[in-house]
Structures are given as structure tokens and as C-alpha cells.
Queue: 2 jobs
Job 1
Amino acid sequence: MTSCPVIRLKKDEDRRIRAGHLWVFSNEIDVAVTPIAKMSPGEMVAVHTHGGKFLAYGYINPASLISIRILGRDPDFLPTESLLVHRIKVALSLRERLFAQPYYRLVFGESDFLPGLVVDRYGDYLVVQITTAGMENLKEAIIAALDKVFRPKAILLRNDSGAREIEGLASYVESAVGEMPEEIDVLDTGVQYRVSVLQGQKTGWYYDQRMNRRYLADIVKDARVLDVFCYVGAWGVKAAVDGASEVICVDASANALAFVEQNAQLNKVEARVSGIQGDAFDAMKALRADKEKFDVVVVDPPAFIKRKKDFKNGLEAYTRLNQLAVQLLNKDGILVSGSCSHHLPRHELQKVMLQSARHNDRNMQIIHQGYQGPDHPIHPAIPETDYLKAIFARVTMV
């Protein structure tokens, strides 16, 4: 077994790890036997049972509730660049089985057994997000592994997520390999989009809703569509490509709407796509005041519930949003309601949608339930990796 500091768990606290979980919580560590307070964030450790038997290698952050994240379970191989190369190749093999073109989430953290690491692929370009101290310590090895496997034109580090603050990490964006263009193209469900991975949200694109946008194709032909929180037009532009008669996209960002316009032009549907800049709730209220009606309304907001303590206020926001959406639907319309909040269970979103329909004296039928795409696989032992919901519902008059 390779030498590194040993962390011993309390009695019987090894069961979750043996069952496949990748997190060790601070209250599961026997700090009397193996104190961790003075250990360096991101330091590699060996996790042992209370009785001293090896369980796994992982990295530690003594200041975090999730104190250790597991990287490897072979006692003879301490996680190094070679392990990263192996895990990246395994992740790549799944994506290549699923997608004909190289546009997908390549690494999805814990679900690809690389906790704290996200990598999105845009053809010859890679965008990396590191959210933990342990992965930050492995940054050079990560870059080397990605470069070895892909030889990309550029690798961009988008290390500016809020999760880094919790880990005590600085926020930054920098090129690691090559030079990332100001704008790059994405091919997603047969539609071409142009995005900025330097200035855009998260890593520049949201691959997770891919399959749900594909399902929308069967619904929008000849329909009037409203796309709220549209970002660069992933839902709205695709709806136009799939035959919608008119699409109105709503976003607070003028820059995002400029990309909507550009993406509509790229796909030759600009005559049927327009934008409204402003707060989503205000814009929807204005449309309601103008007695505008739509055959399909898509509401795909950012996470209103990022932490458990946000649940009440977040639930109220989802409720207001869905009520406004129902009010903008024609007599026999389709509501597509999304949530990327792990802390909002699917049944709660269904409840919000039903209450919104009944609040407006309408009936509702759920016709499809969507999940995150397969390039965002779910780790069966970690419920937090199962986060995305997209519920398609028919809303009719009583």
C-alpha cells in the first residue's frame, strides 16, 4: 500500500463507503484517533475502517462537512495522473457510445468517479470546472491527462463557480492549453448554436436538457412558443427549427439575447424568433396584461433552491413562475416546467404545477417526464447527482 496519512472512521461508519458512496462526512471520522484539524485542504489520505482495514484513497478538506471525497479503492495505486487518464477514457467511452458528435459533458464529477471535476467538450475544445480543494491540487495532472487523451486545441479553466468559496478556493478563469476563441459552435440535437465559454453561464452551455429539448420537437410544430429564462436560445431556437410558427425568448441578459438572434440566424429561423429583455416575472406579467397567449410555454429557470434553507422562498418562486406560465397558455396548451434544484423533489414540482393549474381553474395532465441527459449519469448511491427535472403537461379548460 502506498504511503500517505491515514484517516480512521468511527465504528460502523464504513458501510456507506463499502456500498459505493464517495463522501465521508466530518462526523464519521474518529478524530480522537486521527485528528484532521491541521491537515491541508486537498491533501491525499487513506481511509481506514475503525478496525484499521484499508477502504479507499481520497482527498480531505477538514473545513468542509464533506470531509473526504473518494478517488480510488485499490490499496496499491495512489490516485495520480495515470488514474485520471483511465477515468477520463472510461468516461469518454460512454459518451462515444451515446453521441455521434463530440459535444457533451465529458466528466460529471462523482458520477464519473472524479468528484469535484466537471469537463464539457465542444469538439476540439474543453472547458474544465474544478470545485474542490482536492481537485485543485490535482489541476496540473488533470490538464496533462486531458491533453494526453484529446490533444485539444484549447483547454479553458472556468473556475468561477460559487462552490469554490465553500472549499476556500479563489475564483478565476484562465487558459490552460492553447487559446480559447471568444465564440465557439455547439451541435446539439441537430441544431447549431454559437456560445461564449469565456463569458457565458457555467461552462457556456447546458447539455443536461438535451433529451428534453428533443422531446419538445413533437409538440411545437405550428405552435406559438414562449421560452422563459432562454439564455442563448437552446429551447427557443430548436422549437423554431422544429416548426414553431413563432417563438418569443425572454431573458434578463442583453448579451444572451444577442446570441439568441445570432443562433436563430445560424439556423435560418430568424423571421420566427424574437426576444424580450427583462426580469422573467415582469416580462410574463406584461405579456399577460397584453392578453398574449401561447400554445407552448417553457420555463427553465436557474436553481431557485440552492440550499435546504432556501426551500420556502424557492418554492414560492417556482409557484409564481408556473402560475404565470399557466395564465399565458391557450385553452389547450403545453407547459414545460424545469428545475435544476436537487432540493426540489420531482413530486414537489408536480404539485406546484397542479396547484398553478387549479389556481387558474384549469385541468392538467402530465404527458412526459424528463431527466438529465445520459452524459450526466446518476450515481445510484448519491441522490445529489439526480437533480434535473423537466415535466411536460397538457393544460386544458375545466
Job 2
Amino acid sequence: MEFSDKDPSPFCLRGQTALITGGATGLGLGMARSFVAVGAHVVLVGRREEELKRAVQELGPAASYVRCDITNLGAAGQLVEAVTRAAGGPPDILVNNAGIHVKRPSLDTTPEDFQAVLNTHVLAAHALTRAVLPGMISRGHGSILFIASMASLFGIPQVIAYSAAKSAHLGMVRTLATEVSSLGVRVNAIAPGWIDSEMSRKAMAGDPARREKVLGRTPLKKFGDAEDVGWAAVYLCSPAAKFVTGVVLPVDGGVSIGF
């Protein structure tokens, strides 16, 4: 994908830095590929250095990484500083993508299970959002993207903590959008459907009936791939979406409207 400096695409992100949590694999890596393709520099954040190194090698010179556990909430400001050093400039885009998954019946989900999921999806996302916002507001420009889920939109069994966390994302998006959009920072979410990824394969492991149920209610009759979410992320963070804030965009093959 090529863009002319004289006639740039409205989807072009040249010169912008995107901080992507959980960026080394799955949806995070798919979004990173798409951001790099439209000219952005991506900084991948995660805990596993070998995965981060492999992802950066694949993505090339427009990518770098910072190893960090985002659930260390007090270090969010230091993380933003490290990302700024790695990219040679502050983040213009924050993608709150990192997450963990606990699949078991509600009665078997312990308070510790629940807290771990909330720490990653909700508290860490808030801490990092809070750390990037002052700079975005001072520059009058920024985009924050939360990766929600079908579990934000309707009931899915055996994922009560995950459903609670992803539902919280919708409230966070709406409240943040009302607070900071007038200051130049747009806040949106993507709700992926069933995407072929390590996490989705784990969620359906040993449960063929669940897999068939998902495909049966998906109008497109297939799983998506990470780049489907990546291109939606490019749109929401690009000038093409300059009048879009506070929305939740399903990228789901029609699952959320299917029967």
C-alpha cells in the first residue's frame, strides 16, 4: 500500500506512533501489521520478550518493543516514557488490547480468577489511558482504542469474568469520549467476533459443539483473521474517522446481528 505525500490517503498514519499492548501475537500483531502498512511506527508492549523480538523482526524498522507487565499499575507513566524513547516521540495512538481469558463455569470462578481478569483488561487499560492522556490533550490530538468483544454485547457461558471486563470497556469508552473528545482525543472500541487466534482456539478446545454453534450463527459462515480487526483499527485511528468517537464497531462476520 503506497501513499503520495501530495495526495495522502485519509487512512494514512505516517509519522504517528501507536502503542499496542499485547502486541506480539494474535489480534495485537494483526493490528500492528496494518498500522505499519499505512505508515505508523508501532511500539509493542508485552511480558514475553522472545515473542516481542519475533514480532519486531517480522514488522521491520517501523516497529520496536518495550517489555512490561501492564498490571504493574504504578509503572504506567514509566511505560509511556519508555515507549516515547523507543519511538523517538510520544504515542499518538493507544490500543488497549492486552488480555487474559478464564474459561470455567461461574460457580467455579474464584475471586482471584475474577480479579486477575479485571486487573489486565480494566485497571491496566485505565492506568495506561490515564498516563497517555495528558500528552495527547496538550498536543490536541490522539486516538484511544479499546478491544472489546462479543462478550460485551451478549451472554456467553463460562466466561463471566471476561464478560464483565469486556462490558466495562464499553462504559469506559463512552465516559472517556464525553470527557476528552472536545480536547482532540477520540475514544472508540472494536468488538471482534470469533477470530482465528490462539486465544479463540483455546476457548473452543475440546468443545466442537461450541465451534459449530459460533459458525452456525455467523452470517459469513467463517472465522475472521487478525487483519480484519487490524484494518478496522486503522480506520478508527485515522483521519478517515475524524468525526467518529464513542462508538463500538463489531468486526464479527455478522454474529451480533445473526440468528
